[in-house]
Amino acid sequence: MPSDSLSPEEQYEITYQATKNAIWDVLGTAVYLVFLIFAVAIALFAIAFPAIGSLATGDVKPFVVGVAVLGLAVVGFGSYRIYQLVQ
Fold this sequence. Notes:
This is Cox cluster protein. The chain crosses the membrane at residues 30-51, 63-83. Keywords: Membrane, Transmembrane, Transmembrane helix. The protein is mainly α. The chain has one domain (2-86). 85% of the residues lie in helices and 0% in strands. It is built from two helices and no strands. It has helices spanning 8-56, 62-86. Helix 1 (8-56) packs antiparallel against helix 2 (62-86). The radius of gyration is 23 Å and the shape is rod-shaped. The mean pLDDT is 89.
């Protein structure tokens, strides 16, 4: 058995590093998820919806269309990443 050849100090160090890495992985994923949620909300409510509203009122300019497409692309990408993380 491999653990028989390790001293208690070595076993402690391996367990400590594995636990520390696992905790940082969980915290990193949680922070990334919160960031994505806020990015999607900002892209949706500050970029995509106003641009789509502008298009709905008849203000069809290439810049407005580009902003709407960019906002929807950010929302789509962020939503896809959130879906992947939650699954």
